[in-house]
Amino acid sequence: MEITVLHQIMDWNEDVSQDVKQTLAANKIYMINIMGSPGAGKTSLITSLIEHLNSQFRIGVIEADIAGQVDADRIASLGIPTVQLNTDGACHIEAMSIQNILPHLPLKDLDVIFVENIGNLVCPAEFRIGESLRITILSIPEGDDKVEKYPLMFTETDCLVLNKFDMLPYFDFDVQKVRANYETVNTNAALFQVSNRTGNGIQNLADFIAEHIMRATL
């Protein structure tokens, strides 16, 4: 008898993901899953988005790392409700982890939760965690071949952010190549070019997110 263990795990995760969605909907919370490699700028992007959205929405953050809480401390210093999730070696977040961690956030006082997933371009794409929006970050220093090498990550997203765009003059990075590869695997998703250092493009991305939040909560 053949047993497809991965398929069974994925089905189980999908069931819990739906439960998380119901909990968030009951509290009128919109959850955003931020994915990307280590060093892509996930925490910096979340920080920038908080600065642009905090006057409009009540924001909480779940910071996931294999170990430590450096990023969570950084977010919490902004006065944002933050919970650290340490996976102790796991390369992604599963829906059960989100389900267990939600009671540690003041759900009645939140409109939006940003989840910073584990730095990885493989595993996080495979696991839904109850999010309403997925954002994948690709930074210029990582190279322009990542969409070809890790297509699932860029297929299973709602938005691609080309981060650290101010560094484009210093790297051999073909933006049009990335755009063409991305549109091949994901015909309907948005693409933004941003720089956390200069602030360029952040407002456009924040407006995109705000529009999705408001559309979902109307």
Could you explain how this protein is built, in words?
This protein is α/β, with parallel strands linked by helices and 218 residues long. The protein has one domain (5-217): Rossmann fold (3-Layer(aba) Sandwich), CATH 3.40.50. It has helices spanning 5-26, 42-53, 70-76, 95-101, 146-149, 151-155, 175-185, 202-217, and strands at residues 30-36, 59-65, 82-86, 112-116, 133-139, 159-163, 190-193.
Which features characterize this protein?
218 residues; alpha/beta; Rossmann fold; globular; disordered N terminus
Q: What is the H/E string?
A: HEHEHEHEEHHEHEH
The CATH class name reads: Alpha Beta
Helix proportion of residues, in percent? 25-40%
N-to-C CA distance = 49 Å
The number of helical runs is 8
Overall mean pLDDT stands at 92
- Strand fraction: 15-25%
So, the CATH homologous superfamily? Answer: P-loop containing nucleotide triphosphate hydrolases
Q: Characterize the largest beta sheet: strand count, sense, and whether it forms a barrel.
A: 7 strands, parallel
| Overall geometry | globular
Low-confidence stretches: 3-8
Rounded to an integer in angstroms, the radius of gyration calculated over CA atoms is 17 Å
Judging by the overall fold, what is the CATH architecture? 3-Layer(aba) Sandwich
In CATH, the topology is named Rossmann fold
Domain unit count: 1
DSSP summary, beta strand count? 7
